Records
---
Amino acid sequence: MDTDGIKPDPTPQPVPQKQKKKLKFKLPKRRGFRSNENEDVGWEVFTPVPPSQHTTKANYIRTTKYTVVTFIPLFLYSQFRRFYNIYFLLGALSVLYGSSSLSPMSQISPLLMVLFFAALKDLIEDYARYRSDCEANEKLTSVIRDGVAMEVKAQDLMNGDLVHVKKNEKLSVDAIIISSSFEDGTCFVETAELDGETNLKRRSAIPALSHYQAFEDVIRVNLHIQCESPNENLLSYEGRAKYIVSAGRARADRRRSFFEPSKHETPESRDADDIVDGPGVVPLSMSNMILRGCVLRNTDHAWVTVVYTGADTKIIRNLKKPPQKESRLMKWLNWLVMGIFIYNAILLFVSCTLEYLQYKVQFERSTQWYLPGGTSEALVTNFIGALFSYFGTYTYVIPISLFVMVEMDRLVQGLYMVWDTKMSLLRPPALDAPPGEAPTLVQMRANNTNLNEDLAAVEYIFSDKTGTLTQNEMRLSQWYLNGEIYPDMERPGSFGEAYRSGRLPEATMRRMTLFYRVMVLCHGVIPSINEVSGRLIYESQSPDETALVEAIANSKFVLTKRSKSNVTFTAPDASGNVQTHVFEVLHSLEFNSDRKRMSVIVKDPETGKYHLYCKGADNIILERLSKDEAQNPRHEIDAAIKALYEFSVIGLRTLCISYRELDEELYHDFKDAYEAAETALVDRELKMAAACEKVEHDLTLIGCTAIEDRLQDEVPETIDFLMRCGIKVWLLTGDKQETAINIGQSSKLIQPGMIVVKLNSKTVPECGTILDDILRQMEANAGRATKGYTLVVDGLSLGHVFAGNHQQKMIAVGVQCHSVICCRVTPLQKSMVVNMVKDGLKKMTLAIGDGANDVSMIMSAHVGVGIMGREGTQAVRSSDFAFAEFRFLKRLLVVHGRWSFMRLSELIFYSFYKNLAFITIQFWFGFYSAWSGQLIYEEFFMTWFNVFFTALPPLLIGVFEQDVSDTTAENIPELYHQSRVGQYWNWRLFAGVMFDAVWHSLAVFYGIYLAFGDGDIDTKGRVIGYWVGTFFFANIVVLVVFARLCLLTYHWVWATWAVLLFSLAVTAVATIVIEAIGYGSVVGTYTEAYSLPVFWLSLPVIVAACVLPAFAWIYDSDIVIERSQENRKMKINAGPDIELVEVEQ
Amino acid sequence: MSVVISGHTAFKQQRLKAWQPILTPKTVLPAFFMLGVVFVPIGIALYLASNNVQQIIFDYTTCTNPVFPATNMASIPGPGSFKTCEVTFTIEKDMPGPVFMYYRLTNFYQNHRRYVKSFDANQLANINVNPTGTTPPAPTSVCSPLSRPSDAPANTYPWVKSENGVQKFNPDAVIYPCGLIANSYFSDVLSDITTKDKKTTYSFQNDSIAWPSDAAKFKPSSLNSINNGDIKNLVFPPPEWVKKFPQFSGGYTSANLFDASQQRFQVWMRPAGLPNFRKLWGESKATIPAGEYTMRIEDSFDVSTFGGTKSVVISTVSILGGKNPFLGIAYIVVGIICWILGLLFLIRHMIKPRKLGDYTYLSWNQPQRGAGAEGQSTNAAGAGPSQRY
């Protein structure tokens, strides 16, 4: 026994504790094997886990914002980071100064209430996270520790634990696969939680260990993994594992003897003799890894060893939220708040100055004997008292509840979007679903309701094509081979029929054979038998590939089985006899968006020759063809290019199919370079790409494929409508120019009569010249009636635009075009185009897309919209809004965007209006109360005006208001234009708010002031006093702001009545309750006030005088006319309601 | 099998039944006229009602200290160091009962922040003022800045002994009634009115001039149970009272302790909302016939230092209380404005009727206008609300 090994390991190991960051850099690179000095191998994991590293809670995760301890400080910090909350706090603190007119409780209670609701919201959200954390942390997991099987809680998993993952189990750590229930170590995982893709992905075990499948085998494995430190890259992982398999069960205490050569020779470590396998070193990559959140599918079980736990796992490291987008309205609102602060400051300044002057005069004359004073101390005391009183009182100018209400309103708007059946899709069950499966309801998602109102002001839409405008339901349309077109869509299997006809010449047959081999071998499709339906189904990350494999299967070349290195398929020979073939795929050179091609290298079982089969984008393949006339005769290439052109003109997606025979030497050259690249720890991808370049040239063209992707429903109508709204639509697609123009035409981006302007430059300067030309022509054409322009730019020219700093010219052209089509663009270019317009024009931009390649664009634009299509949900997760089909965009913008904007801006304006009016009355009162800061309202009323009496009516606007119906909005594009240019937020409206507030405050104050006279307004001669006055002002101001609300409301639903009546009742009841409980000095006064005829007589006239200007103004404003349109003529186009009814099956 | 789609409700689909009042000329113009039709008559009626109120008002501020000699007013000495004002006035028409007598103060800020709250409701309601029967509890800070005799100006209470020039008050001593409102209690005394021939006197009663709620609140104090020797040094009248009310100039005794249930005091204790105000002095149920009358006013309440005035008002009431034409005028004005607006809109509607539902009213339209022009208009529009409006 190696006693040395029992000692605590002197080297600090990556224990996922607080010190781990330091460890990453400190770890000496002197472990078991030599390592390249440049490589990051700062992370070491041993299986079995050395006792010194045993910890608990290593895999504990916490996604909550707060803990019990940090809640109060963190919450307060987050709240008081906002300026207005500090302001309210100061307002509340001001009453601590003794002689303020407000009591501390009444001043601080609204702030407390707002904080309470904010805290409640945070706690509820956090509690949900806490529950899901607990569930994840407490889940029991089977592990082997020191050769002993046990069950531990997921939170206690540690690096190096050997975990037994069962079918359909979700992993809670990042782990390397040692073996699986499959002989070759293949595992299938579903990564929906990581990237939203529901298709299965293949992962493979460490090849050398994949046969240690049974419990008694796997416990004998010792591992020493060196790999990169935890990082957030979900797509790559680089590391290597040294393994030793002993005869008996692996024990941590013997690990050192195994892995340290020096120790290996000491007599104590003789028991290392029992090594039965190894030591060996294997490279590790992402394909050996299962990440936290993955679910094991189609695999009975797998043994994995943990490499990252808890906060080190890749998904947790990816949990960082993207920077929060903020709507334009919120920025404006901040300005508005600042403006109100200034208004407030002016009121405060004027009030306090007048107070000081008045008191100074009286002090010097020592006159007001009934008030305290007569000393200089009283002057100061009075001034400070008034200052604090006014400061506290004037804080009510900012509606404290507004910010809570804005949040609530956004939430409701988001829910409305989600609930909207006209934006939901009943998606029929998948073909392979078990019979009787119900269709799924795909509802819209509002991920970022902060941007609701921006939807009403969109001016530029950037759209992806595939899956966004089109259905992304790829179906093979045509095969092209040997100068022949096989229309597979019209006549499925026509290619196979021709092949089996036996009438074709030898050379043709040979090419056809090659062709179908590329089809069945060169792809990443996983065939599987659906357990329920028993049908063979294909799953892959690319719908194009599935379409190809499915189509070739129609011709009876059927892919049946795929293991890690072998592909099995059935194929008929020339005479129609079906045989099963097994090909060993030696190498698979994967597709990525840079390479735009995929190759496999196989050994032809008949000839023993190495074949490279390559399929890829036509431009990529064409430039890699052999120039040898014998292999690629000129006329054949020309014919193929012509066919490709024809395909693209009708909007098909094309691929070229090619092959190459590799001689032994070249193959081995490649193999060495490739395998070296595979085990590299740094720049692996670059090295692999370089290795691939070695073989992927001098190709021979075999044929082409054309895949059809149909437009989604109502795409042309939607685009046409959006363009009529004055929105510029930019299509950003990876397609060829011809395809793109064709799609542009069929989707109405290019309409009859429009002039198509093309920008295809070969060099940077040329790009500038062309743009200048276009601008000149447009200027010359300016007077003439045209239907507008469409600009078509290809990716290369777009590159020139950015390289040559021609963005300004490009924008100048762009703003004059109704639509712009950018083809052949890369994902990066997509976001560059969006940023160019966003920064160059400062206009509201919206990007819509469905794929991972649209993510950058979606994040760049002001508003990002994701399509919940078939290309996974990465776009959806990074988007602000997401729905199932493009056509919903129209409703999202013109209905929900419009209503959100209208409701929110009216809510904000109204909230400010009512508070301004409310507090400005207090200001006027200063002239008649010696500027002492005495309140014009009863204190209780003052406090609860915002949060109680008038809290619900603004929400009424926020929830129910509709100025035009959805049908109208969806039929009159001009309405959208109006909302975009500021119908709901402009200086005129703001001036209206200020005017109303000031006029109402004047009318209410002086109306009551004059009606009061000397206070002798009782029919029995009695006089009323200050407290009855507070009643007058309070009640009438509430009625006035309600009356203003009534004028504002276009859409009266039962809730409008209910809320108004309720709020009135609450006000009345509160008045009575205040009196009944003898609050303050008001006892008895309010019932008297109700009995005064003057109160009831002054009410109608004051309210009428207040709202008359607004009434006349509203009557004269143009939206009213649209609304009458709605009732009289809008029977047109309304159509039947689209109802989602119960689906019977 | 069926899919139940939850939430297809009118609310969630934003399709609740709604009433959408539309402001078209057909509805708005009649509304304007109707409003005028309703408001103007109400205004006229109110104006007439106010006009029917008979009111006699005379300012006696300078009566006893005439800057400019006033007609019909004479200053006569007494009581004590004060003077009395004798006023002669004429009632032109019979004043039907009830007739009310008020005093009116101007520029007197009863609504000052520190004044309004400066009283102790419990003390006035005799709640918990004298639990031990011997010493009064200290009034709470609500009376600040006038709770205790020590808060009063120096030497207000001459009967309290001084030590080294500083008066030593009993630490339990309170002012009753404490606070600024009580301290400034109106001290003038208005007499009943007498016909010139001194044959008939019309008396103004003060037993129902306060609001019932006030009358119920104020109670005589039980502080008078403190024995006579102690009360003078434990319970003090407010400082101004020592000067203005002869009966309190030597402090309280058990017998003359101030009685808060007097309604004139209650009227005063309800602070006025505005700096010019009336307080009810008394009510005469009888009709006062036309003729010449005299009355006397004991003048001790100082208003000239702060530029105020004091007057006596004798008035009948209408549905609006005293004479106040404002509401009537307001109704008439608003009614007329409605008519004017209605007319203006009507004229405009006759000359240039608005076509309902016409998009040309929208500030932007016609996408067919051609790209160049359209592009420009879009640019202008896109420049933002600030340019457009």
Note: The longest strand of chain B covers residues 83-91.
---
Amino acid sequence: LELGINFDHIWQKTLTVLHPLKVADGSIMNETDLAGPMVFCLAFGATLLLAGKIQFGYVYGISAIGCLGMFCLLNLMSMTGVSFGCVASVLGYCLLPMILLSSFAVIFSLQGMVGIILTAGIIGWCSFSASKIFISALAMEGQQLLVAYPCALLYGVFALISIF
Amino acid sequence: MATTAAPAGGARSGAGPEWGGFEENIQGGGSAVIDMENMDDTSGSSFEDMGELHQRLREEEVDADAAAAEEEDGDFLGMKGFKGQLSRQVADQMWQAGKRQASRAFSLYANIDILRPYFDVEPAQVRSRLLESMIPIKMVNFPQKIAGELYGPLMLVFTLVAILLHGMKTSDTIIREGTLMGTAIGTCFGYWLGVSSFIYFLAYLCNAQITMLQMLALLGYGLFGHCIVLFITYNIHLHALFYLFWLLVGGLSTLRMVAVLVSRTVGPTQRLLLCGTLAALHMLFLLYLHFAYHKVVEGILDTLEGPDIPPMQRVPRDIPAALPAARLSAAVLNATAKAVAVTLQSH
């Protein structure tokens, strides 16, 4: 706790991401913590490395631009604003299922029909969790699909890096 | 400017006796110069001048207190310390002036709140607009309604970028100068913004009743057809299928845009000019997107073949130049067979 890293909150947020049907608590996003997302980004890069793709630069570049884009969009679409740290934190946490995908890609190739279905499922899972957390934190009812779609595009680009 | 400088000078001397010393000094002219420079950036109303004035008075009080504390050290060091104080104060004031100017410019230009009303949509609305963008309406006698929103068009442009990236990756396109991502984003946004502006300019010349926002929204939703066609034909590499979709789906979305524009323009020449340009650009863009990243696949396939091919089968590269149907069908069958062979080989 001296470092400002609240393990309980990190674990709670991770569970929220991993159970897509579990209702998210709007208050967990009040303190933005970037420790978890940083770890997930590194883990993603590491699994890509295991598959033989040295693309840390792409991962960081795309996450930065994607976070900026989502930040602008969410600020425009929500009644209350949102801070950049909050957006980065949520998007980073929801990258967790993508790590599963890239670790799967280490052993099996994702370029067949199985790969496509798995990829589509994982992208859906990531964007559904991200939009669920955003909706509950920003109180934007009825717009979950509108928030989920840009997240799906962003995670789709990440998935493209995993596959090719 | 002289009038506003005087009260500032007066206020300065009121802030403390230490400041009065500056004006008597030869280098006191320096502070007056700074004053003028600060006055330069109040190009707005007098409100801003007064606001600036008040803010500067407050800052100077704070500065004066800080300077008072430093002055004692400066006096201790003698004349050299005094000049050092002055240069530091000068630098400080320049920094403050620059920071003020930058923050004002930032709050003026980076205020994205002006775009807020264009993103206020619901999923049902977006869905219905997407479907309507493929249905041309025949009623051209009075202006058709265009939804002025930016969420749908922006998402469609990003979707097109994603589909392009996917297509480039599957066809192993190598971009020599620049990156894949940059090319895709540049192409799509360039088309959306550039062609919208161009058609808006033409609409202005032809006296059509359409605003820039409406043009952006119209063209953005017109990209829905492009997304569908490219998504299907990047995965199923059949040229005949692409031409069919190009005409059908591309044609439908172009017809819709053309109908909307015709309903908002008066005069046959103007209508022809405006709608002809839009139709040509829209259809040609789809053609370009398909073939720019498709030729690479065929190039690779040709090199994989080897020397023992009859010259007839080298035709696939020339398909865009519209050759007779017999060669076309042979080439199509060849292209599909080769594509299947390549995919089997790569696994």
Note: The interface with chain A takes residues 112-113, 115-116, 119-123, 126, 151, 155, 158-159, 162, 165-166, 169-170, 181, 346-347 of chain B (CB under 8 Å).
